[in-house]
Amino acid sequence: MSDVTRTPVVAGNWKLNQTIDESLTLVRQLREAISGVDGVEVIVGPVATALHAVAGELKGSNIGLAAQNTHHEASGAFTGELSPLLLADVGCTHCIVGHSERRQLFGETDAGVGRKAAALQAHGLVPIVCLGETLEQREAGETLGVCLGQLDASLDGVAVAGDRLIVAYEPVWAIGTGKTAKASDAQEVHAALRARLREAHGEVADSIRILYGGSVKPANAAELLAEVDIDGALVGGASLKAETFAPIVEAAAG
Predict the structure, then answer these.
(1) Strands 41-45 vs 64-67: parallel, antiparallel or unpaired
(2) pTM above 0.85, yes or no
């Protein structure tokens, strides 16, 4: 075990919400709400149509900008897709890949997630690689097997380094349902993920931030973030309002 200190991360996934004007208002409110908070990395993930405007609003701040998806090729005949090259061009610093909604609704695979993550890194962006089990898999006692399998396959060919990769554990049954994994249960999965990273990549595993996602809100953030291997949160619904997102940022900052 190394003595690496991991700066916590709180990332907001706005999903398919917020017009450009609404996005700008939210960013302004958020900047004001967390202006005095230090020791935590904050990222916002607007819809694609708002990325350029939000990037302009974030200039001069320490808040990162994430896209919600990408294509693994830089350019070409891929109608409707956005590439890492274009995301970097618009001002993104991060990109969420492999979110359970993408996996479930759009058929994304571990291999595809890995290709996207590697492409993002090649263009200087940090992928936030998501993984997690369904309710059926949890009830069958398959949680660790599923999550470790997704981790291995999704990171095949991806550079594992603390400044180039973020992992997010998001149990599918806890996303948008109001249900949250117990802090101790979430910690068990996070610890297993870090142990697998350490087994495969050595002590660099201690620099990888592993976030928890799944109905994170002000009421449960502090308990979750107090666990030793939970390095922050990937926040959905609570990230759509500054008054609910800022307290989560403050909890992560300690």
Answers:
(1) parallel
(2) yes
- Which one of 101, 133, 170, 250 is the catalytic residue? 170
Lookup: tokens for 145: 């097997």
Tokens representing residue 194 in the block: 């870090």
Q: How many CA atoms lie within 13 A of 77 on its CB side?
A: 0
CA distance 221 to 39: 16
Q: Rounded CA gap, 21 and 57, in Å? A: 11
**pLDDT tens for residues 13-34?**
999 999 999 999 999 999 999 9
From the candidates 71, 72, 99, 190, give the one annotated as an active-site residue. 99
Condensed to tens digits (0 to 9), the pLDDT of residues 165-184 reads 999 999 988 777 777 789 99
Question: Which among 59, 62, 50 has a CA at the least distance from the CA of 23?
Answer: 50
Query: How does pLDDT run across 207-225, given as a tens digit for each residue?
Result: 999 999 988 999 999 999 9
Closest CA to 242 of 21, 48, 24: 24
Instruction: Judge whether 170 counts as a catalytic residue.
Output: yes
Domains of the chain are 41-244 (3.20.20.70)
Q: Is 243 a catalytic residue?
A: no
User: What proportion of the chain, given as a percentage, has pLDDT over 70?
Assistant: 99
pLDDT at 121 (0 to 100)? 98
Q: Report the C-alpha gap between 189 and 174 in whole angstroms.
A: 14
Record the tokens describing residue 152, joined without a space.
């291995």
Q: Could you tell me which residues are beta bridge partners of residue 167? A: 129, 210
